[in-house]
Amino acid sequence: MGVFAVTKLSEGPVRPSAATPSETLPLAWVDRYPTHRGLVESAHVYRNAARLAAPVSEVEADADAGAFAALKEDQAKKKKKSPAAVVRAALADALVHYYPFAGRIVEDDVPGRPAVLCSADGVYFVEAAANCTLADVNFLERPLLLGKEQLVPCPAPELWPVEPHNSLAMIQVTTFTCGGFVIGLRTNHAVADGTGAAQFLNAVGDLARGLPEPRVKPVWGRDRFPDPDIKPGPLPELPVLALEYIAFDFPAAYLNKLKSQYAASTGGKLCSGFDIVIAKLWQCRTRATVPAPGVDVKLCFFASVRHVLKLEPGYYGNAIFPVKVSAPAENVAASSVIEIVGMVREAKWRMAEECMSWAEGRTGGRDPFQMTFNYESVYVSDWSKLGFSDVDYGYGTPMAAGPLVNCDLIASVIVMKAPAPLVGTRLLASCVTKEHAEDFTRRMREDLV
Fold first, then answer.
1. String of b and e for 178-194 (b: at least 16 CB within 10 Å)?
2. Are 279 and 286 spatial neighbours (Cβ–Cβ below 8 Å)?
3. Residue 302 and residue 238: Cα distance in Å, rounded?
4. Is 165 annotated as catalytic?
5. Do 96 and 172 fall into the same domain?
6. What is the CA radius of gyration of the chain?
7. 97 is catalytic
8. What are phi and psi of 344, to 5 degrees?
9. Same domain, residue pair 171 and 248
10. What residues make up the domain containing 219?
11. Per the domain annotation, does 233 fall within a domain?
12. pLDDT at 108
């Protein structure tokens, strides 16, 4: 087997293709949270760049026959361009609409209140080529056969003087010898949550496919976001945990079976595949790790509260709130998956009132975002419905889209759409130590076939 490598062909900033406002925009309370000041890295795998997807429909284009014909002609021209050239041009156009992404984070006049300077510096962009096929590197399944530093931009200071924690976005397009390509994305959590980052990437895709403007109009609107007089808690202390990395696939048939069981046991109430996956995770992990009697085990994930706070469509900042579930370990271990789904659903139901209490400053100064990280707690990040799986640059949607790595320091899992051609949900777990990994894996894979 040869050495797989990626060569950078060109790199540098991509700036907006037209003039954009020069201003300093405030960040919201949640945006400013200390743990959000950093770049989230993800990989988006497209199997075959040589096969252009079906043209934009007349309904989607919302155009007359002449304009639609022009769109098809434009797509024919794009068919001759490299994916990197298509994405680069569309990115420049998208930054006219999403111009804050072309800026950088600066410290505002008020200490502890960073803001975004809309400077039109651009998004750092890399065009690269791999010396192998996607199949050679197992379509970037774990363990990665290409280092993540080869898949995302990591510019030297002389090429990009903005510090990573102040940069807002970086993109790399790596083509493979099979004709497929990978989008390596780094976005700053301070300017967009997962839904917001996917909204931005979908805008790039819209313009790459020839739409005259993004289907979703961006809304900054941070001045209308709640700004409670609550001081964020200190940065959490992180334990030193040697965690094993394990992946699980949940077939759609398994999820549908348990959804039906939950509905039957609750008089017709509904639950999601996400609820089932994390309920089984929590049950199996608790049984495998065997916490001491009387110890509470905790499950935490973040939910979008755009509907709760009645934010405008197109708002792409952080609009998330923690959902926390806690129970004695012996109760979780003794419960069925269906019973634990009920616990998760109840916590989701409480979240709206907890969020409004925080937004209106009714928590007595308590910070609901403050976390405690220990082996009894597991944190879940849901990537399954953010919108990354819908991004189409004219080559179809990705076969897989998700984060490059889990957090190595805390017990965490990532839920994402299973990569094509699988149908179902994938769970990427980094939540048990080696001594518990075999038992945890056995329990998790029971009944999945």
1. bbbbbbbbbbbbbbbbb
2. no
3. 19
4. no
5. yes
6. 22
7. no
8. -65, -45
9. no
10. 6-224
11. no
12. 72
